[in-house]
Design goal:
By secondary structure, the chain is of the alpha+beta class. It contains 9 helices and 11 strands.
């Protein structure tokens, strides 16, 4: 987490504070988020670059410093108009345009053929395919054609394929993209989690809702289906535990209400 550096003029920083600040600034510079010539060995929080103090860069990109986001040059990404819809982009401060890609602390980011790939240490790879999006049925149709034509290398190979929507993963993995996309275009009804989201997304006609679904839809590839199944079981167990805790709280409130009502009657 980024240190909050004081804006007070004349503030004296300890040696450890300056060391931490310069280390954080070096990380941001390597990711291309600090413009101008900055000597990270001698920089101070009050130094101004790109029209603002360097401490503001450290505060703004806290997620990057904590390992929960990575800056990717927009020039490396394909279909930039769609990529801008997927990620926050930064261009101010004399730096080249970058996309800020959020991810978990135990995930890394790479770019292949213009597509951002977020990889977990367990072998799960998440992809947000920047194909022009008008509505979900059209997007899935074009995605299937791209997989068939082989224009997106990440959608080929001996992998298992699934999807994430609003953070919920599909309960079924497929050996090829065509089968996955057929499934996504005709999801089973009355299924909880991501399939319910998928049904809603396909039926949605609201532009704002459709953009939201696009931003939260990921194609997942893995060579470790056993770990994916375990992940789903853990998520289901956690959901069941939350429901049990919620029911317990409700039962406690009902019991307290009955006791209060009984007390009122007795008085």
């Amino acid at each position: 987490m980024a240190v909050k550096y004081s804006s007070r003029i004349g503030k004296q920083y300890t040696a450890s504070e300056l060391k931490e600040f310069r280390s954080q600034l070096s990380t941001l510079k390597k990711q291309g988020l600090v413009g101008g010539k900055v000597n990270t060995r001698t920089a101070r929080p009050s130094d101004v670059r790109g029209g603002k103090p360097l401490r503001e860069y450290v505060a703004k990109y806290d997620d990057v410093l904590s390992g929960k986001a990575t800056a990717v040059p927009l020039a490396r990404l394909g279909n930039k108009s769609q990529q801008r819809k997927l990620y926050e982009t930064v261009t101010a401060g004399g730096i080249s345009p970058h996309a800020i890609v959020p991810h978990a602390a135990d995930e890394g980011v790479s770019v292949h053929s213009g597509v951002v790939e977020i990889s977990h240490t367990k072998g799960i790879h998440r992809l947000q395919i920047p194909i022009d999006y008008k509505n979900l049925p059209q997007y899935l149709k074009d995605l299937k054609q791209a997989a068939k034509d082989g224009t997106i290398p990440e959608l080929r190979g001996p992998h298992y394929y699934g999807f994430n929507l609003h953070g919920g993963g599909s309960h079924t993995l497929f050996r090829n993209m065509e089968d996955l996309l057929d499934y996504m275009r005709n999801p089973r009804e009355n299924i909880s989690g991501s399939n319910r989201w998928l049904n809603s997304a396909i039926r949605s006609k609201d532009p704002k809702e459709m953009r939201d679904y696009f931003r939260n839809l990921e194609i997942v590839t893995t060579t470790e289906p056993v770990w994916w199944n375990r992940k789903e079981k853990r998520e289901q167990a956690a959901k069941k535990k939350r429901e049990q805790a919620r029911n317990k709280r409700r039962a406690g409130k009902r019991k307290a209400a009955r006791a209060a009502k009984k007390k009122d009657r007795s008085t």
